[in-house]
């Protein structure tokens, strides 16, 4: 790996959209792409902001703010998750929507990029309140979404139940059942088997491929995973089954650590019991910051963004980082890892199993067919291997980081589509 100068000075407070733009500039520097196309990709096509009134269970009324950012749809309908988190911002949604555009292109699936969310802590809401919030959010977003226009999905703080409510609210307004309007639903209402596990599974598959690339044996690999939700728990369990030793996992309150390896099937995940990881009876407890600096073979940040920064990147002792979360590494940290020769396998391929199985779900919905779990997992394996081979080819043939190689694969496809369709009237 070699160092490539970054085009601008990064700073530690950079937002997701700033990180996403810096990553775009870096990859573009390796390609001969029309500057007009790059300029187009620096910006979202549109960003919607909605107000969501909610009557709480005690009769009080509160107003919440929600967003949906559309980044690019040159390759197909907008696609991306909905996040319920107190830290949601417009800029975050734009940055996350840009990452969705690249993610779909790396996987070569016919979708563009979108992302949305509501500024709310879902742990503060009862199940009934969450249902009312989700239904009203779906009603407010109805003009900009649809099975051929923009297809939301789960992200942090949302899951299959929220997607079922969302689909029902949209369908009631349309006057007909529209399962293809969202993915990540429970299978009983048109969801795909394997979708919930898919982003974590793909993190596991990509980690397995990266270990093989560096001639490392999974059975001799110690892994630390930050976040034990949809992505973290499924990645940890996949790698545990592969023979790796999962020495640490965490939730928002802290981490548990066992140098001999935890039984990941016995630790309850965020979906089973939010916030229970840190209460598990493990030999040692750590802070989330300590988990990130453990001496392990693989570190998988799978919770929130910007956890690997200029402050802690030199203290990270892992031989390899695989990004389970979206945007866990700031530009400064990325530069430090590059200087230190620590490979960082980026989010836009590592967790792309989620949107890939979402695509399978959408195909099942529009064809009114259901695939068996075995078929979903087999097709996911095929698509992940194909994407990994495309990225590895760029990595080996150019002197770039894994992130740049992944962006190069994505950008070439997006630019070719823009050039074919014609961009500037
Ligand atoms: N769900 C999906 O389909 C996909 C998600 N992603 C990305 O993966 C990441 C995680 O999403 P997902 O697994 O769905 O989220 P979940 O809500 O299912 O789980 C999040 C996990 O992270 C923990 N967590 C939350 N805040 C912090 C914090 N400040 N420090 C440490 N841990 C924290 C939570 O702890 P607690 O249980 O205590 O709340 C929980 O264990 C996000 O970046 C998301 O964008 C990427 C691709 C697809
Ligand atoms: O499944 C999807 O459509 C998108 C999931 C998502 O939000 C992500 O990959 O970050």
Folded structure, characterized:
It is a single chain. With 425 residues, the protein is α/β, with parallel strands linked by helices. Among the domains are: 44-177, Leucine Dehydrogenase, chain A, domain 1 (Rossmann fold), CATH 3.40.50; 198-350, Rossmann fold (3-Layer(aba) Sandwich), CATH 3.40.50. It is built from 13 helices and 12 strands. It has helices at 16-28, 35-41, 90-106, 127-141, 160-174, 198-213, 230-242, 288-292, 331-339, 347-350, 353-367, 373-397, 402-421; strands at residues 46-55, 61-72, 78-85, 113-119, 150-154, 222-226, 245-251, 254-257, 284-286, 298-301, 320-322, 344-345. A 7-stranded mixed sheet has the order 9-8-7-6-10-11-12. The chain has a 5-stranded mixed sheet with strand order 1-2-4-3-5. Strand 11, helix 9 (331-339) and strand 12 (344-345) form a beta-alpha-beta unit. Helix 1 runs parallel beside helix 3 and helix 6 (198-213) packs across helix 7 (230-242). It starts with 15 loop residues before the first helix and ends with a helix. The chain binds NADPH dihydro-nicotinamide-adenine-dinucleotide phosphate and 2-oxoglutaric acid. NADPH dihydro-nicotinamide-adenine-dinucleotide phosphate is lined by residues 81, 154-157, 199, 226-232, 250-253, 270, 274-275, 288, 302-304, 324-326, 351, 354. The record marks 155 as: Important for catalysis. Belongs to the Glu/Leu/Phe/Val dehydrogenases family. The active site is at residue 115.
Layout of SSEs?
Elements: H1 16-28, H2 35-41, E1 46-55, E2 61-72, E3 78-85, H3 90-106, E4 113-119, H4 127-141, E5 150-154, H5 160-174, H6 198-213, E6 222-226, H7 230-242, E7 245-251, E8 254-257, E9 284-286, H8 288-292, E10 298-301, E11 320-322, H9 331-339, E12 344-345, H10 347-350, H11 353-367, H12 373-397, H13 402-421
Parallel strand pairs: 3-4, 3-5, 6-7, 6-10, 10-11, 11-12
Antiparallel strand pairs: 1-2, 2-4, 7-8, 8-9
Helix pairs in contact: 1-3, 1-13, 3-13, 4-5, 6-7, 6-11, 6-12, 11-12, 12-13
């Amino acid at each position: 790996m070699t160092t490539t100068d970054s085009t601008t000075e990064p700073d530690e407070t950079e937002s997701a959209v700033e990180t996403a733009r810096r990553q775009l500039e870096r990859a573009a520097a390796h390609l001969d792409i029309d500057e007009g196309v790059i300029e187009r990709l620096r910006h979202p096509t549109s960003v919607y902001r909605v107000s969501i009134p909610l009557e709480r269970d005690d009769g009080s009324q509160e107003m919440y703010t929600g967003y949906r950012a559309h980044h690019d749809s040159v390759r197909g309908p907008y696609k991306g998750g909905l996040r319920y988190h107190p830290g949601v911002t417009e800029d975050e949604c734009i940055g996350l929507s840009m990452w969705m555009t690249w993610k779909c292109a790396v996987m070569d699936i016919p979708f563009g990029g979108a992302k949305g969310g509501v500024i709310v802590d879902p742990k503060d809401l009862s199940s009934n309140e969450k249902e009312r919030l989700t239904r009203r959010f779906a009603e407010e977003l109805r003009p900009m979404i649809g099975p051929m226009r923009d297809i939301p999905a789960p992200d942090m703080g949302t899951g299959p139940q929220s997607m079922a409510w969302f689909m029902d609210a949209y369908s009631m307004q349309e006057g007909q059942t529209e399962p293809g309007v969202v993915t990540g639903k429970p299978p009983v209402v048109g969801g795909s088997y394997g979708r919930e596990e898919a982003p974590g599974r793909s993190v596991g598959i990509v980690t397995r491929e990266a270990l093989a690339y560096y001639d490392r044996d999974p059975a001799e690999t110690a892994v630390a995973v930050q976040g034990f939700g949809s992505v973290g728990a499924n990645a940890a369990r996949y790698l545990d089954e592969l023979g790796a030793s999962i020495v640490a996992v965490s939730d928002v309150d802290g981490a548990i650590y066992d140098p001999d390896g935890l039984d990941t099937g016995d630790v309850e995940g965020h979906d089973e019991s939010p916030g229970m990881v840190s209460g598990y009876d493990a030999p040692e407890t750590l802070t989330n910051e300590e988990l990130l600096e453990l001496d392990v073979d693989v570190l998988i940040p799978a919770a929130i963004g910007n956890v690997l920064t200029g402050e802690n990147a030199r203290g990270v002792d892992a031989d390899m980082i695989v990004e389970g979360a979206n945007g866990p590494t700031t530009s400064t940290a990325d530069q430090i890892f590059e200087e230190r020769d620590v490979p960082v396998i980026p989010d836009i391929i590592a967790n792309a199993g989620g949107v890939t199985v979402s695509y399978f779900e959408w195909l099942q919905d529009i064809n009114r067919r259901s695939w068996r779990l075995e078929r979903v997992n087999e097709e996911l394996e095929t698509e992940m291997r194909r994407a990994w081979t495309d990225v590895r080819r760029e990595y080996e043939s150019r002197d770039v980081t894994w992130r740049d190689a992944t962006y190069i694969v994505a950008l070439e496809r997006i630019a070719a589509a823009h050039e074919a369709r014609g961009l500037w009237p």
